[in-house]
Amino acid sequence: MGVGVGLTVLRQGVVLGSTALRRRLLVSLEINNKDRAYEWFLSWMAHQASTPAARSSIAAPWTRSHQLSVETMIEQRKNGSSSALFKLVAGPGTHWFRYEGAFIQVKRERETRSTQLMSGVPWETVTLTTLSRDRSLFPRLLSEARDLAMRGQEGKLVIHTAWGIEWKPFGQPRRKRPLHSVVLHPGVADKVEQDVTRFLERRQWYADRGIPYRRGYLLHGPPGSGKTSFIQALAGSLSYDICLLNLSERGLTDDKLNHLLSNAPERSFILIEDVDAAFNKRVQTSEDGYQSSVTFSGFLNALDGVASGEERIIFMTTNHVERLDPALIRPGRVDLRQLVNDASPLQARTLFTRFYGEESQEASEGLNRLANELEDIVAEESGKGRQISMAALQGLFIRNSAEEAIVTCRALFMPSTT
Ligand SMILES: Nc1ncnc2c1ncn2[C@@H]1O[C@H](COP(=O)(O)OP(=O)(O)OP(=O)(O)O)[C@@H](O)[C@H]1O
Questions:
Q1: Could you give the CA distance from residue 140 to residue 187 in angstroms, rounded to a whole number?
Q2: Which end of the chain, N or C, is less surrounded by CB atoms within 10 Å?
């Protein structure tokens, strides 16, 4: 009996001792999948293992682990085609790696009983554990992970969508579209761009006068005239992200909307498309008749953003400006209103020459003649009250040779709506 008691005391002593030792000697860092660092860290781990240059600073025995997860990414190539890439990341379980000479244990755990309310994604944590004396490695490691993630986004446009009350990147960052590739009526692009840049330069001016630092833009015009493309290209050229807001989304309430608009990621445009469709006679109805719980007055309040002192740039688009409630487009909510119309003769010509280019002097003369012809057709049809959208012209140019495009384009003109 004495031996039994002695062994029990010894065992307890060992457990307590090892816990105390762990506390004194080890340090842990927990990263939750609610935090942006979560994705950064897992991607960083995967990158270290797959890149020979990076492997010198890290030994990654975790790649021999039996618990791996796969993340599939769609990569867009320069020629516009895309392919699926598979990235192997550390799966749920315990893994080890060495970073700058120190051993680090990574424990990835997934909560199986509860999921995130809005997205249905399970809660997850990764816990990094290392010796106390190496605690300074954590900030370094996280900064490296963040810098790697940021490098991956350089030159790219990130689109965020709302997940419950949070914004999350939607898909992979896209290649930025050059601003000049969206061909608008002369002066239109410059006018909007200059307004945005002037606004961005006047933060202090707004602060000094106690005016909320926000600006609203409304681009209106027929479908396929380049409103969305222009906003995305402008965001890209200013290195801003886009936060795409769908007012008809189920479950969106006034409170959530207010929270979303007040907590958009830094350096981002909030884009609300087809704003006329969302509020029809001040009641919001989706196509299947579902009525969202965002009220018109809730939307106006959220736009005003009384609670927020942060920079806020909101772009709205519509095909039917005449259907919008005057309260929505009053100055302060919409500060700049711009018509983006169907193709003018000059726009059609510019898009045409962008598509077919000029290979030789001889070809360029032929092209010039065809471009003149296209300009004449657009002017002539417009005299008869018929227009062609830039999107229709783009489709025509993609499918046909320059000559065929000129011969067949007349069939695509539609009665003007503006
Ligand atoms: N002005 C333009 N210059 C170059 N391409 C254009 C232009 N307008 C439209 N396009 C092309 O047409 C397609 C549709 O354009 P986009 O979605 O920007 O139009 P939109 O005005 O936002 O349409 P909607 O009102 O239906 O949302 C895109 O692929 C874009 O490249």
A1: 48
A2: N
> pLDDT digits over 24-59, tens only?
788 999 998 888 889 889 888 888 766 655 554 455
13 in a structural domain: no
The answer on 357 and 334 residing in a single domain is no
| Ligand 1 atom 8: residue of nearest CA | 226
User: Ligand 1: which atom is nearest the Cα of residue 318?
Assistant: 25
Query: pLDDT (tens digit, 9 = 90+) per residue, 333-343?
Result: 999 999 999 99
Ligand 1 environment, Cβ below 6 A: 182-184, 223-229, 317, 319, 351, 390-391, 394
Q: For residue 120, what are its two tokens? A: 């249905």
Give the pairing of strands 214-220 and 312-318.
parallel
Pick the atom of ligand 1 nearest to 230's CA: 18
Q: Which of 269, 212, 277 is nearest to 238 (CA)?
A: 269
Per-residue model confidence as pLDDT tens digits over 158-207: 999 988 888 888 877 888 999 999 999 999 999 999 999 999 999 899 88
Q: Do 64 and 140 share a domain, yes or no?
A: yes
Q: pLDDT grade, residue 293 (50/70/90)?
A: confident
Residues 49 and 132 grouped into a single domain: yes
Do both 320 and 179 map to the same domain?
yes
Q: Using an 8 Å Cβ cutoff, are 316 and 217 in contact?
A: yes
- Ligand 1 centre to CA of 348 (Å) is 13
